From TrEMBL:
Enzyme class, spelled out: hydrolase
Keywords, in A-Z order: Glycosidase, Hydrolase
Coiled coil regions, renumbered to chain: none
Database matches in InterPro entries: GH (IPR017853), GH115 (IPR031924), GH115_sf (IPR042301), Hex-like_dom2 (IPR029018), S_layer_C (IPR022651)
Species name: Zobellia galactanivorans (strain DSM 12802 / CCUG 47099 / CIP 106680 / NCIMB 13871 / Dsij)
Record-listed E.C. numbers: 3.2.1.-
Source organism superkingdom: Bacteria
Protein name: Glycoside hydrolase, family GH115
Length: 683
């Protein structure tokens, strides 16, 4: 029976070949490009082919046609055969004839090939195929990147496209694309305020931004996305600073639309089944005693699975923490948290199995979750364990044992403490991920937190590369390839140097947002007033807090000045993608420099104020007051550069302080007025 089916398929394909030969292999000038897909192509395959068609139309001066019926080949042209052996009979026959080698097992799941072959001994055709749908996706997107010069991040970088000829399409050697090391690479949309605010409704992605983020992630081999902020995280409708910004209301239909789009692009959708989302919030007082409120937790989870778009979840995530706020679980009824979550994961896992059998379940050991693991916390064996970095790409704790579990990692391309300006660290990506792969077999799953995405493109791509092929990933080579993909040689070298200094400026878990807190400490001391925190107790002013930052900020200022100097040198030499050089290399370093310069002035004023308090000598008070005009001018520069911001019109308003994530506040001119008034009263 199988042989009969194969023979029938071959007869059909021979008819196809005859038409292809007639239309495709002429000595006349090629005017068209035919993308031949199978009639069994899935929606995801067709979506990838549509993307490929658009990529070709951007680069090649030819009409591009998608065909699955040979009668649609109505012109002379080049032929590219696309799909999998299961979806495209022509690929299956070429494999059976030994002209290409592609099966479910070779190269294997998420693997693929590029090949050139002949049909009936005539001119060449191109075959881009995958062992499965994802393998086909990555084969075709890799081809677009390497052969057509289409940047996977083009929407975000604005990379200029170089025209190609039809002949250029064939300028490659046959390639086998091995399956990636990590089979589940998941992007975590978290702390996304700027991306959700810079156009459209506040705290909600505009459709273009969201879909373009998904499109880029798929091209980078991310095959899952954890949707988090867009489920209505509790801060959005509870924290005072957000309530002042907008009357947040979740659009549940829009959430479902986002889920559907990601799945159409071939991504699994991951959801952390925390219980505080506006989609169906549980009272926080029920999140501190599993013993008393177990049924409330289970009822809320059932509601998610029955009444909300979360029923479409593919990967179920849970953290062993407070289930409304992302805090350590502190039982209000005397429970041991290890025992609690041993029960919780069993109960939740059983619920998932009842609704979505064979779905992936992931324990994210974030923060104290790692200590709990080492203290004996164990979910059922069918849970993947994702070990968490400390926010800046390396680990504070390591597992004492993996205990036979499938292990993975939770990594940060960006962290809330450096939310505005990236900390480029391909070196960490290389060393830390290779250690986790070799030392702990933590290669089943990788979750990458990209914050608001756009500032963290370099690290996001670095994690994708190391999870694809750790043996071939080398940080300096990655830096070189990445920068030279956008900029000329010398300007690329300055870009790398600038980013390395920017990284050095952010040692010891320090980033732009952490400096905002340090600035508040200095302002608090200079104005003799507590730090006000919406919804939390105020923090009393204290010179010791300022003193602890003095030496470190001087070092940071030295490194950030070097980062800006290197960026300026490259900016003066760059010939290609000038706007992107300004916006991604120069501007972030400059914004960081602006903030640190302001902080340094506040520190100098604080030292003078303390000397005045210790000695009573008015000279020191006068010295502090004399720096106020400089501080005001520096704050004006901060606002001006953040509001002027990017050269690329598309990103106008991105850095506007009014739409920033409100963590740690932002300095204002009113704060400087308070300092002025306070110092004047001491004269």
């Amino acid at each position: 029976m199988i042989r009969t089916l194969r023979f029938s398929r071959i007869l059909i394909v021979l008819a196809v070949l005859g038409v292809l030969l007639f239309y495709s292999f002429s000595k006349e000038k090629t005017t068209s490009c035919f993308l031949v897909i199978g009639k069994g192509a899935s929606e995801t395959e067709r979506n990838a082919v549509d993307d490929f068609k658009q990529d070709l139309e951007k680069t090649v001066s030819a009409k591009v046609h998608i065909v699955s019926d040979v009668n649609d080949l109505t012109d002379k042209g080049a032929v590219i055969v696309l799909g999998t052996p299961a979806s495209n009979d022509l690929i299956a026959v070429l494999n059976e004839e030994g002209k290409i080698k592609i099966t479910k097992e070779t190269p294997g799941p998420r693997g693929g090939i590029w090949a050139k072959t002949t049909l009936q001994g005539e001119e060449e055709v191109i075959v881009i195929a995958g062992s499965d749908v994802q393998g086909f996706q990555y084969a075709v997107y890799d081809y677009s990147n390497e052969m057509l010069g289409i940047d996977p991040l083009q929407y975000w970088t604005g990379k200029e496209v170089t025209p190609k000829s039809i002949k250029d399409l064939f300028n490659f050697t046959d390639r086998k694309i091995a399956p990636p090391k990590v089979p589940l690479l998941c992007y975590f949309e978290n702390d996304v305020d700027e991306l959700a605010n810079y156009r459209g409704d506040l705290l909600s992605y505009d459709w273009e931004s969201y879909t373009e983020m998904i499109n880029s992630l798929v091209r980078l081999r991310y095959n899952a996305i954890q949707i988090f902020d867009m489920l209505g995280r509790p801060e959005f409708f509870i924290r005072p600073e957000y309530k002042e910004l907008t009357d947040y209301k979740l659009d549940i239909a829009y959430v479902e639309k986002m889920i559907d789009y990601a799945q159409k692009k071939g991504m699994k959708v991951a959801i952390d089944f925390a219980l505080g989302y506006q989609i169906h919030p549980m009272s926080a007082d029920k999140a501190t005693c599993w013993a008393d409120y177990k049924e409330d937790w289970l009822t809320a989870w059932r509601y998610y699975l029955e009444e909300t778009p979360l029923r479409k979840t593919d990967i179920f995530i849970l953290r062993p923490r407070h289930q409304v706020w992302d805090w350590e679980y502190e039982s209000s009824c005397g429970e041991d948290k290890v025992e609690v979550f041993n029960e919780v994961y069993k109960a939740f896992g059983d619920l998932v199995d009842a609704y979505k059998p064979n779905a992936d379940k992931v324990l994210v050991c974030y923060s104290d979750g790692m200590e709990m693991w080492n203290d004996g916390f164990r979910p059922p064996k069918d849970w993947i364990v994702a070990w968490s970095d400390h926010g800046f790409g390396d680990f504070e704790y390591y597992p004492d044992t993996t205990d036979g579990y499938d292990f993975g990692t939770y990594m940060h391309a960006g962290f809330w403490l450096n939310h505005t300006v990236h900390n480029p660290y391909p070196e960490k990506v290389e060393s830390v991920m290779k250690e986790m792969f070799s030392g702990y077999d933590a290669d089943t799953f990788c979750l990458v937190n990209g914050q608001n995405f756009r500032p963290f493109l370099l690290n996001i791509e670095a994690y994708a590369e190391v999870c694809n092929s750790p043996n071939s990933f080398e940080a300096d080579a990655f830096y070189k390839k990445w920068t030279e993909g956008y900029f000329d040689g010398e300007s690329a070298e300055h870009a790398v140097a600038s980013m390395k200094y920017l990284h050095r400026a952010q040692q010891e878990r320090i980033g732009y947002v952490q400096h905002l807190w340090e600035i508040r400490e200095a302002i608090s001391y200079l104005s003799d007033s507590p730090i006000q925190r919406p919804g939390k107790l105020p923090v009393a002013h204290d010179y010791k807090r300022v003193e602890n930052d003095l030496e470190r900020v001087r070092f940071i200022r030295q490194e950030i000045n070097r980062a800006v100097q290197e960026a300026e040198k490259g900016l003066g030499k760059v010939k290609r993608n000038k706007n992107f050089y300004h916006d991604y290399i120069y501007l972030p370093a400059r914004l960081y420099q602006d903030l640190v310069d302001f902080e340094q002035t506040l520190h100098d004023m604080s030292v003078f104020k303390k000397q005045f308090e210790d000695t009573g000598d008015d000279k020191f008070l006068n010295d502090a007051q004399a720096l106020l005009p400089q501080a005001k001018e520096q704050l004006e520069i901060i606002y001006r550069n953040r509001k002027t911001g990017d050269k690329e019109v598309k990103w106008k308003n991105w850095y506007n302080p009014e739409i920033r994530r409100p963590n740690n506040g932002f300095p204002t001119f009113q704060m400087l007025d308070q300092i002025t008034l306070n110092l004047n009263t001491k004269s």
